[in-house]
Amino acid sequence: MFIPCHKGFTEDRGTRRPSGYVVKNRKDGSVHMDSREPMERRLLRIPEAATALGIGRTTLYEMVRRGEIPIVRIGRAVRIPATAIDVWVADRTRQADTE
Questions:
Q1: At what angle do helices 82-98 and 46-53 cross, to 10 degrees?
Q2: For 81, how many CA atoms within 13 A lie in the half-sphere containing its CB?
Q3: CA dist., res. 17 & res. 30, Å (int)
Q4: Tens digit of pLDDT for each residue in 26-58?
Q5: Are 21 and 60 contained in the same domain?
Q6: What's CA 10's distance to the chain center, in Å?
Q7: Residue in 28, 37, 41 with CA at minimum distance from that of residue 79
Q8: What pTM was computed for the model?
Q9: Both 57 and 14 in a single domain?
Q10: pLDDT tens digits, 60-88
Q11: Do 24 and 36 form a contact (C-beta atoms < 8 A)?
Q12: In this structure, are 12 and 57 located in the same domain?
């Protein structure tokens, strides 16, 4: 059983695992961490988004600069919403279908 502990980690018999797992409610109302279902990340780093699109980082940075892909800034960090990637692919697919 996972035991919530400090600094975003869970503890399982002395081992520490990073948080980021879905919290499941049990029938008795108690809560535990389920390591079988990691939470899907909503914001991706540039290299992760580039890999998801099958393009290079430089190409993705250029697309961001031109405003083709929206970004979210968290301090100095640049993140791309996962939904923005889906929308971009869908738009490109529609454009290819109409040509």
A1: 30
A2: 10
A3: 20
A4: 666 666 655 555 667 899 999 999 999 999 999
A5: no
A6: 20
A7: 41
A8: 0.58
A9: no
A10: 999 999 999 999 999 999 999 999 999 99
A11: no
A12: no
